[in-house]
Amino acid sequence: MQSKPALQIRLVVFDWAGTVVDHGSIAPIAALIAAFRELGLELSEAEARKPMGLNKRDHIAAILSSPAVVEQWHRVFGKQPTEADGDALYERFLPLQAQTALGRTAVIPGVVECTRELRKRGIKMGTTTGYPTAIGSPVADAARGQGFEPDFCVFPDEVAAGRPAPLMIRRNMQHGQVDSPAAVVKVGDTVPDIEEGRNAGCWSVGITDTGSEIGMDLQEWQALAPAEKARRAKAAANTLLAAGAHAVIPAVAHLPSLIDELNQRLGRGERP
Question: Out of 4, 22, 56, 124, which one is annotated catalytic?
Answer without folding.
Answer: 56
